[in-house]
Model the fold of this input.
Amino acid sequence: MKRKPYTVQEKEELLKSTAIEKVANSSATYSKEFKLFAVGEYMTGKTPMQIFIEAGINVNILGKEQPHKCLMRWRKIHDIYGPNGLLQENRGLCSSGRSSKKILTTEEKLAKLERENEILKEQVHFLKKLRGWE
Done:
């Protein structure tokens, strides 16, 4: 179920907290530093609600379940990718929030390009045969 859009007053109230970078119609974007801080506080035993309230975020506007959902998502990212996982830009990446592409070394990139080049040569050769150009 999609949340109802925030009113102008609700957006202004949410933006008062330094933990929130921006507010869209029905979602908030949290600062990377806050995400890292929140996961650390959660690991020390604080509840998600306590963490959000202490950060000056009005949980009545966000919804009572939102702090818990955010912390579970951030903790999962932290567990898999470490602290740097929370500091990376996530937009435009696969559903897990991380790039599906492996970071390749120069040698791996060169080998991949050579394979692609061979495939393209084979495709050109096939098309030439198909059209009777050879």
